[in-house]
């Protein structure tokens, strides 16, 4: 097969733009990989596409004719070709960049050759969901399973909405344009409004058969099970983005993303403030007076802490680096421990006497409600 663009399309060197378009359309019908069983179909299809692109661009065609195939191809590789406007030169163009074979195929059979203003395939929408985790999970990080009910491309028809090879025709309502123009008489005069064609959903094409699984939408709802990687240190309200896990794109366009908002439930023992944590630690009166080595719970297990003699109830101590991990950084916040001296609400006889003596020794005159202790005694 000759590499020459005119030969590829089978047209003469003085062929009109219409003839070139027609020849290209013919090549698409013959060589589109979806319809051809020619093993070289894809290669031929690409060549035809390239030839059409160059020969329907006035400026590029002039350069091609001047340079010949070889020199033109080399110049193009170096980026020294072009300048011609694609607008108008390419009746299928919505701005160039037809790299997607399926895209141009749909445009052809859909647009009937006149899809100047066809809607470009839209990327899928981002979807949002919430994932609830506890503080321990936020501390350690985890791989969590997340189940989402989301739209996915229909397997049966590959997201096209119709079985492969279905006969199709241009949508009569929009004339294959995918869009309709409505003219309205308003106080300001005639207003034109363009909107997506409802009959063909903007595709410009009607198919003889619809996929029975998705009823032509190309999309089905599916329960998907995903693994979400929760990084240590994540905070309540932060969002994780899962690339491409959102709604499917239109006709092969990219999927949207899935945004997972993290909700961290309250912890009974720890309060979070940024990367710091706060907790309360009960201690006894003698511990507060004499000091002691106590065990303090952290989210990473208990640690020992030396309580000084003469600690006041309500005093707060800082355990450095025992707070939450810093998200995607080194280090951890701090843990603030507020001690609370627990006042006993019941005493045995011995304790009562000792405490009374303690008060007397300090010169305190404490009026002890005997009835309270008698009641206590009788209950044992
Ligand atoms: Zn239509
Ligand atoms: Zn389907």
Write the layout of secondary structure elements.
Elements lengths: L4 H5 L7 H15 L9 H15 L2 H20 L23 H11 L15 E7 L1 H6 L1 E12 L14 E3 L8 E8 L2 E8 L8 E3 L11 E12 L8 E4 L15 E7 L6 E3 L2 E8 L1 H6 L1 E7 L2 E7 L8 E4 L15 E7 L7 H13 L8 H10 L1
Parallel strand pairs: 1-9, 11-15
Antiparallel strand pairs: 2-7, 3-6, 4-5, 8-9, 10-11, 12-13, 14-15
Helix pairs in contact: 2-3
The structure holds zinc ion (2 copies).
Organism: Halovenus aranensis
GO molecular function: ATP binding; heat shock protein binding; unfolded protein binding; zinc ion binding
Cofactor: Zn(2+)
Structure overview:
The protein has 380 residues and is α+β, with helices and mostly antiparallel strands. It folds into 4 domains: 5-90, DnaJ domain (Helix Hairpins, Orthogonal Bundle), CATH 1.10.287; 121-154 and 221-265, Urease metallochaperone UreE, N-terminal domain (HSP40/DNAj peptide-binding domain); 271-341, HSP40/DNAj peptide-binding domain (Sandwich), CATH 2.60.260; 349-379, no CATH class. 27% of the residues lie in helices and 26% in strands. It contains 9 helices and 15 strands. It has helices at 5-9, 17-31, 41-55, 58-77, 101-111, 135-140, 285-290, 349-361, 370-379, and strands at 127-133, 142-153, 168-170, 179-186, 189-196, 205-207, 219-230, 239-242, 258-264, 271-273, 276-283, 292-298, 301-307, 316-319, 335-341. The strands form 6 sheets. A 4-stranded mixed β-sheet has the order 10-11-15-14. A 3-stranded mixed β-sheet has the order 1-9-8. Strands 2-7 form a two-stranded antiparallel ribbon. Helix 2 (17-31) packs antiparallel against helix 3 (41-55). It is elongated, with a radius of gyration of 38 Å. It starts with a helix and ends with a helix. The relative contact order is 0.10. Residues 83-118 have low confidence and may be disordered. Residues 171, 173-174, 178, 197, 199-200, 204 line the site of one zinc ion (ZN). Residues 80-98 have a biased composition (Gly residues). Residues 29-101 are annotated as: Disordered. One of its GO terms (biological process) is protein refolding. InterPro entries: DnaJ, DnaJ_C, DnaJ_domain, HSP40/DnaJ_pept-bd, HSP_DnaJ_Cys-rich_dom, HSP_DnaJ_Cys-rich_dom_sf, J_dom_sf. A zinc finger (CR-type) spans 141-223.
């Amino acid at each position: 097969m000759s590499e020459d663009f005119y030969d590829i399309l089978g047209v003469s060197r003085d062929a009109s733009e219409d003839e070139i378009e027609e020849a290209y359309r013919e090549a698409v019908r013959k060589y589109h990989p979806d319809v051809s069983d020619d093993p070289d179909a894809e290669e031929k299809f690409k060549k035809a596409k390239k030839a059409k692109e160059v020969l329907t661009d006035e400026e590029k065609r002039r350069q091609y004719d001047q340079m010949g195939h070889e020199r033109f191809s080399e110049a193009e590789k170096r980026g020294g070709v072009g300048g011609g406007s694609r607008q108008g030169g390419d009746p299928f163009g919505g701005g160039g960049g037809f790299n997607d074979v399926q895209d141009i195929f749909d445009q052809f059979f859909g647009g009937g050759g006149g899809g100047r203003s066809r809607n470009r395939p839209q990327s899928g929408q981002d979807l949002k969901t919430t994932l609830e985790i506890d503080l321990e999970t936020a501390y350690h990080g985890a791989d969590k399973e997340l189940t989402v009910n989301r739209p996915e491309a229909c397997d049966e028809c590959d997201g096209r909405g119709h079985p492969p090879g279905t006969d199709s025709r241009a949508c009569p309502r929009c004339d294959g344009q995918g869009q309709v123009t409505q003219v309205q008489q308003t106080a300001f005069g005639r207003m034109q409004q363009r909107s997506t064609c409802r009959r063909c959903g903007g595709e410009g094409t009607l198919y003889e058969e619809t996929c029975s699984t998705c009823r032509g939408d190309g999309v089905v709802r599916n329960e998907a099970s995903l693994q979400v990687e929760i990084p240590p240190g994540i905070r309540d309200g932060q969002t994780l983005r899962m690339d491409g896990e959102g709604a499917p794109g239109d006709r092969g366009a990219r999927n949207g993303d899935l945004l997972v908002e993290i909700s961290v439930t309250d912890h009974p023992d720890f309060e979070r403030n940024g990367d710091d944590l706060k907790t309360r630690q009960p201690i006894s009166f003698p511990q507060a007076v004499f000091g002691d080595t106590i065990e303090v719970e952290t989210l990473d297990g208990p640690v020992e802490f030396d309580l000084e003699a003469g600690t006041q109830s309500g005093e707060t101590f800082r355990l450095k680096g025992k707070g939450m991990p810093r998200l995607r950084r080194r280090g951890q916040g701090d843990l603030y421990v507020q001690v609370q001296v627990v006042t006993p609400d019941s005493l045995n006889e011995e304790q009562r006497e000792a405490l009374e003596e303690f008060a007397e020794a300090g010169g305190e005159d404490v009026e002890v409600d005997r009835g309270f202790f008698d009641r206590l005694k009788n209950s044992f």
